[in-house]
Records
---
Amino acid sequence: MASNEMEKAKTLLTLALFRPDPTPCLPKEVETIAALLQTATNKCSPANVQNCKKWVLANLVPSERRVEPFCNYLVALANSFRAEDASRSKGGSRPATAQEARVPSAARRRLHILYILSDIVYHVKYRLQPPEHGQKSFINKLESTLPLLVKSASSFVRRPKQIGKIRGLISLWAERGHFSNAFLDTLRKAVDEGVTKGATGEPDTTAQDSASAANTGSKPVPFNMPKRHGDLSTAWYDLPPGNWLRWIDGTYPLDPQKITPIEFKPGPAREELVDAVTKVLADVKRIFAKESQPEDQQVDISEMGERLERGNNGEIMGGDTYYGWSRQFCRKIKDKEQ
C-alpha cells in the first residue's frame, strides 16, 4: 500500500514539475528532491536541510500548482517509513546491513520532515525577497497537509521525548507567528489525536486521511466539460496533444498559430463521452489491480499479441487490439467503410 501511494504521489509531483508554471523543470529534478529528502530524513543535519530548502525555494515557491503535490508526496513519504520499519522487523535472523543500521526509526524520520518544513516556512515568511512573492500560496497549501504530518509523527507508543519535541516545535511556530492561532490549535489537536492513536494501537491511516482531506465529499464527482482543453497562457508546443490532432493531415506542416486550446461548451458531459471515460478508467483500474480476473472471463493472447477476454464458451467478450483500438471502435470504423 505504501509503495503504491509513493508511486502515485511521485507521479503527480512529476507532472506538476513538468508544467510551465512558471517554467518547466528538468526530469531529473524529481529524483533530485527524492534523494535530498531521503538524505535529510536519515540525517537531519543543517547542510542536508539547507539543500532541501534550496530546492523548494527554486522549484516550488514561485509556483502556485506545485506545492500541493509536494505536500502530498511528503505525506506518502512519511507513511512509507513505518512500512520500512515493519519490513526490517520481519527480516528474521538476517543481520541488518551497515546502511540499514544507520537509518533512524520511522518516528525520528517523521520528526525530521517537520524540521525540514519548519526551516522552509521560516525562510519563506521572513527572508523571501520580495516578501510577498509566493508566500501566501506556499503557506496556505501547506496548512492542508501539515496536521496529517504532525499527527503521524505523534502516533508512536512510549515516545514522550518525541511528543515533547513536536509540542515545542508548535510553540516555536506560535512565537514566530508562522501560522494563525486557529491553525496552531488544529496542530495541537493533531498531536493529541496522534498520541491517542498510538496508545490505543490503532492502525496507521495517514494515507487514508490524506485521501479524505483531498476529497470534498463521498458522492461521486459528476463528469462536467471544462471551458477549454489547455491553458491560453501555455505555448503551443506545451499544449495537450489533443489540440494538435485536428490539424494533422499528413499534407502540410503544422501551423503553430492554429494550435490553440480547444473550446468546449461548459456543463454536463454527453452520455456517450461519460461511458467512454468510465470504460478507460475501469481499464486502468484493471491493469493495476492485484486481484485476478472475474471467473466468467479468461484472458488470452492471440498470435498478434492482442489481449483477448473470452467467456466460458470461448467467445470473445472484449480485450485490446494490437494497435490499441477497442474492438467496438474497429467495428464502427469498418462499418463506416462498408
---
Amino acid sequence: MEVPVIDLAAYLSAGEGEVGSEVSELCREVSGILRETGALLVKDPRCTVEDNDRFLDMMEKYFESPFHFKRLQERPNLHYQVGVTPEGVEIPRSLVDEEMQEKFRAMPKESQPSIPIGPDPKWRYMWRVGPRPSNTRFQELNSEPVIPDGFPEWKETMDSWGHKMISAIEVVAEMAAIGFGLPKDAFTSLMKQGPHLLAPTGCDLRRYGKEGTVFAGYHYDLNFLTIHGRSRFPGLNIWLRNGKKVEVKVPVGCLLIQTGKQIEWLTAGDCLAGMHEVIVTSRTIDAIKQASEHNRSLWRVSSTLFAHIASDAVLKPLGHFAESPLSCKYPPICAGEFVEQELAVINLKGNKGES
C-alpha cells in the first residue's frame, strides 16, 4: 500500500473564510488517513526540495565531525532535550516494554518488527523551534538552544527549516480538526508556545550499514505530530491500524507526518499513535552503493521535527471525543508531566537531582 499524498495548496489558497465542500472533503480525507495509517504524506509549496537539501547538507557535515567535538554539545542534565544525544543513549521502548513485546510476538511473522539488541546506534540533535512561554512549570523542556562552533549558518538553517515544517504541521492540524468534526483551532490553540523540537538523527552507514541493523527500534512518538523531510537513505517501516507493516517511500518534494501519543490522547484513541521503526533494508543498501559511487556522505540524516502540545496545557479528549467509551483510558494530564513520564521510560530523563 502506498501512503496517499495530500497537496496542502488547496487548503492554503482557501483563505480564512468558510471552508468549501472540496476543502471539507480534503480535511475528512486527512483525518481518515491519520486514523487508518498513522501517517500522511503532504506536499507544501512553502517547503522546497532546496530547503530540505540545505538542511541535510549541514547536518551531514555536523555528524561527520569528530566524536569529541560532538560531545561538547551534549546536555544530559536537561534530559537531552537540547543539544546532541550520542549513539547508544536512546533506548527503544520495545526493549523495555513487556506489554509491547507481547503484542508484537502475537503478530504474523511478516508484520513483526526487527528486534533491537540494545540502545539505538543513532545520534540525534535537539533544537527548539518557536517562542518559549515566559512562565512555565517545565523549564527544562523549554531550554535555550545549543550552537556548535564552526557552523555560522546553524541558527538560520535550523530556524528556517524548523519554522517551515511547523507551518506544515499547523495546516495539517487544522485540516485534521475539521475532518474530526472539531473547531478548526482545536489542536493548534493547544500547540501555541509548545516545546517543538527539530530533532534530526544521524546514523553512520559506514559503521552500521549492514542489512537488518536497527537504527530506531519499534516505537511510537510521545508528542502530538511528527514531521520529516525526505531522507537520502530509505529504511522507515510503519504499522497501519490493521497491524500491517508497510515500508514508506517518500516522494521527492514531499514531507511525511506521523501521529504521536498526544493526538491519541486528544481523540480518545480514535487516532492512535503510529508505530514505526528505522532499519537498514535492501533499499538502504542500494542507496549506500549509489552514494559511495558519487562520493557522497554515508551518514543517514532524517530531518525530524516533533510538534508538541504546550507543556502547561492539559491533555484530555476534546469535544465529542470526551463522550467516547474509551475516554476513561485518557484521563486529564498536564502535557509537560506526560512528556517527562515518557522520557523516563526511554532513558532521556537523565539523573536530575542525583550526585
---
Amino acid sequence: METQRHSHLYPLKGLSGLLSTSVCQLTTLRLCLSEIDSLIHQLLLQTLDSLECRKIETWCALGPLDMPGFILTNSLLQQVTLQFSDVSGFTSILAKPLTTNDNKIHKICIVNLRDTDQVELTRLVTEIELIQDQDVYDDNDYGSDTVNHNDLVSRWQAFESMQLDKYGWISQLPNLRHFSFGYCHSWSAAVWRNAVLPRCSTLETLELHGWMRLNSPLRKQLLDHSYPQLSVQKHAEDAISSCFAELGDHLQTLKLVDFWASGSMKLPTPQYFRHIQQQQEQQQQTLTMSATATTVAISSNTHRKKIILQYTSESFKKEESYADLMLNDIYDFIIYHRIHYEVSVQFDSTWEPYHQQWLEQRN
C-alpha cells in the first residue's frame, strides 16, 4: 500500500474480503507508523510473517516506534523491515520490554531511524567535557555553569537505563540471524553489552549505521584517566569490541556504514582458518606439504567471510575536522582483519580527496 501525499488513513474501505484471507506478507510505502499500525489492526493479520515498510514518514510523529508491540501483536512474524525516509524528522522509540522470548523473528532491519536520544546525549557529553575543563581552569571562571560530578554520573546512569529499556527487546530474539540497524550513533555501552551482545554469537549478517564516537577523539585521554565513571567513549568502544569478538562462525557478512571502526574492534579468527592452522600442524605427520597447500587454497576460496565498510558525506560533515584520525583508525581495523576476511572499503566523492591525501602522506 502506498500514499503519494501523506495524510492519515481513515478506516479503509474494500478490505472486508481480506479479513478472512491468510495474508502472510504486507508491504507499505510512504506511510507513517500510526498508519502502519492501523492497517495491521484493520486487516486482522493473524498470519502475517513478513512486514516490509519503505520510506516511513516521520513528520507527524503521532506515536513512537513500538517494536515489542509489532512482535507481540503478530505472533508468526519472522521478518521486519522498517526503512524510514532518507530525509526525516526524529522518531522516538517506546521504552517497553518484550514480555516473552517466545517469538519467531529471524530478521530485523531498521534503517534511517533518527532517535531523540541524540539530543540528550549531546547535552550530557557537553557537560562531561565542561567538568573536565573545570579541572584545568579555575571553577570561578565558570560561575553558575559549573557541573556537579556526582549529579552528572547519576544522570548518565539514568540515560543508559532509559536506552536499555528502549533496546532491550533485541536481546529477547533467540532466533535472530540477520540484524541491521541505523542509526546507532547514540548507543551507549549498556545497549551494546546488554541488548546486542547476547545475540552476536548466532548472527549471520550484521549491519550497523552511524556510530561516530560519543565524544571528541581529542578528549579521550582526559576522560579515561580523570573520570573513569564518565569515560563514556571508552566504555562504549570496549562494549563494541566485545560484540565483535563474540561474532561466531555463523557470521557471513559484517557491514559498517559511516561507522568509526578502530583496531581495537577485533573479530575472531573464522573457523576455516583455525581448521587450516590445525591442518598445518598435522601435515608433518599425515600429509605432504603440497596436499596441505591444496586443501588450504580450496578452503580459503570457499568460505571467505566479508567485511564491508562504507563512508558517505553524512559522516564527513560530522567528522571533517577529525578526518585524518578517523582514517587512521579505519586502516588499523582493515589491516588487522584483511588476513582472515575479505575486506572492502568505499568512500564517496566527498571523502575521496581526503582519503587520497591520507594515502599520499603515508607512502
